[in-house]
Amino acid sequence: MADVTALTFLALCLPLVGALAAPLVIRIFGANGAWLLAIAPLLAFLHFLRFIPKIARGEVVTGGYSWVPSFHLSFSWFLDGLSLAFALLITGIGTLIVLYAGGYLKGHKDQGRFFSFIFLFMGAMLGVVVSDSFLMLFVFWELTSITSFLLIGFDHERAAARRAALQALVVTGGGGLCLLAGLLLLWDISGVTEMSRLIGTGDVVRESPFYLAALLLVLGGAFTKSAQFPFHFWLPNAMEAPTPVSAYLHSATMVKAGVYLLMRLNPVMGATPAWEILLPFFGGLTLVVGTALAIRQTDLKLKLAYTTVSSLGLLVMLIGFGSDHAVEAAALYLVAHSLFKGALFMVAGIIDHETGTRDITRLSGLMRAMPLTWMIALAAAFSMAGLPPFFGFLAKEEIYTALVGADVRAITFTAITVFGNALMFAVAFAVALKPFLGRPVETPKPPHEAPVLLWLGPAVLAVLGLLAAIFSTFTHTVLSSPIASAIRQAPVDIDISLTPHIGLPLALSALTVLLGIGVYWQLARARVLMAVFLRAAGRGPDHGFDVAISGLVRFAGRLMRVLQPGRLEIYVTCSFLCVAAILIIPPVVYGELPRLPAWPADVRLYEWAVFLIAAFGLAAVLVARDRLTAIVSLGIQGFAVAIIFLLFGAPDLSFTQFMVETLSVVILALVMTRLRLSPADRRPLGRKLFDGALALVCGLGFTLVLMRATEAPFNDALTAFFNAYSKSIAHGANVVNVIIVDFRGTDTLGEIAVVAVTGLAILALIRIRAGSERKLAANDPAAEG
């Protein structure tokens, strides 16, 4: 077990190793370094592959290391059918993406940096799906947002890439904060901080009065990450990233993180009216919006991006239905979508890389120049369209089996699904046929077949989509059934195959094909009609995001001008008002005011003399006509306190007080004289009275705190400790010195550092002022006089 834990930890760290090694490997080997870098995700894939037999038998794999046991925090992982499937998709497709990126970005000056980012992204996503502890899940969840920001904005010199990266970060990062609050609520409700233990607390969570709040917060995190309406707009804009990022992000990683979370929490938060209303509604709406917007596009990547939005909506809708067949359909479609969408995105990248354009209206007749690419595109399109003999066909048949019914709800969502699948059918063949069939046209670059690094990845995914369907029994045993079993938390045996089941689901499949062919036949007209409809509908959430960000910036600017007006007296006044409120209000509200002590009867004459000196010093400060006199007079108070320390038997403390007061007076005097501030106090009488009252209230507050502290019984535990160990441990007889230098040495060092930094800052200010005056004198010779 210890060996498995150590190996799993190493497998999770392999993407980080790849990120560190990538710049050096690419510098040495160039684009061929991709073959070497692909070893890291391949080894992780092979490691997770070892768990398939165990997971297929219904077992789970857990492990990790305790971090803060008192708070139940650990670096732990949890592998069942669902998390293992995602881990295999992330590392397996990640291996192909690394190879693909080596060919796609060949010769790019920042290729090493790109590989570092993609490996960090891979590691973050891998951490999300295997995390057992809530803390790990949230940390890796946010890391996916940060690393996707780096990848989307990789071409940072373009404004569109910077905007898309910022938009993705804001939307998904905001959702991450919602998720954090949801996880904290789940922790409070269930009392557990691990996913493996949370799964068994479904009844407790669903019966809690905070269930709906926790559900809405979790959905906020899942919907933003998986681009559900109305948060769908960031995902198509993320196409500003290089195609390897798009292919990876859309097939196996970030956009499916929300889907993974909903699948994982289905046993805990599912089977409630709120779950079964919100998820199908927003999922169905996202399905329709995504496919409709995909029809309008002419850019190959954008067409595929919007169909990813619709596919994610379909998955969320199926999870919300929650029936056995719906869970099976979600498991099948999860795998099928990863295979065909990754292949199609890489095909779109190949077309762009080898022809110089992704505009479908400028592409035609590529079949002769790029026959292998066409075959790969056609195979992936068959699976996306749900046609045999590909795995997408099995998923579509199971989807219709799950949705059909006689009630209004079932009929409505079945009609939505048929409409969405028909449009996805048309988009799939628009990508696979439009650029390749017809008469060849001139493109920015002469078309030719891609090198092996580019076509290897999509070819493998397309072939896997075929083999997974042909050998469906094996696929279900090792992959589909364990996924569905993990979602349902009950044994599920998926048995659908390429053999068609005569009935309503097959009829719906045939209707989908007929509608898809019709839309494909009239694709240009459908594109125009959709563009007209969208113009009539007005600006969408993408524009709303810009308006929201612009309004936020304006609000922040106005708030800053109110809170930070640039006047030091306002900052100081606010600080002392807060101090006064903290010191005065709690004792009054909670009845903790101290008792007034009796007037001391044994005050000696010389002690009265010291008190009078302090009082005269205070009067001198108040009546001083310039700041320098006030500063010198202010030092009298400190010297008087130092004398009191000396009279009461604390010479060390008295010496420290003398030094502090002397240095304070000298430094303040130097600063005031060098800055040449106004010598007179020009405050109006009302402001003087307010400042004086505030000073008295703060002084009263500190007095009350000290009086209350002295009322408490004296605890001499520290005194006894220091007396006992100052000599034996610190080798010093002077207890005060030992405390300052040894026992509190770090504290003293910090105080010295603060004083030193403050002195340097003051010196810098003085030099800046002196430099400005010299420049002014140089520009205006008359100013010297």
Short account of what is shown:
The chain has helices spanning 2-29, 33-37, 39-49, 52-56, 81-104, 111-130, 134-152, 159-190, 195-198, 202-206, 211-225, 234-237, 243-251, 257-269, 273-296, 300-321, 324-355, 371-385, 391-403, 408-433, 452-470, 472-488, 504-521, 523-537, 541-563, 568-589, 605-623, 627-647, 651-675, 685-711, 717-725, 735-743, 745-779, and strands at residues 61-68, 73-79. By secondary structure, the chain is an all-alpha fold.
SSE topology sketch:
Blueprint lengths: L1 H28 L3 H5 L1 H11 L2 H5 L4 E8 L4 E7 L1 H24 L6 H20 L3 H19 L6 H32 L4 H4 L3 H5 L4 H15 L8 H4 L5 H9 L5 H13 L3 H24 L3 H22 L2 H32 L15 H15 L5 H13 L4 H26 L18 H19 L1 H17 L15 H18 L1 H15 L3 H23 L4 H22 L15 H19 L3 H21 L3 H25 L9 H27 L5 H9 L9 H9 L1 H35 L6
Antiparallel strand pairs: 1-2
Structure description:
This protein is mostly helical. 75% of the residues lie in helices and 2% in strands. The chain has 33 helices and two strands. The protein has a two-stranded antiparallel ribbon. Helix 1 packs antiparallel against helix 3, helix 13 (243-251) runs antiparallel to helix 17 (324-355) and helix 21 crosses helix 22 (472-488). The radius of gyration is 35 Å and the shape is elongated. The relative contact order is 0.06.
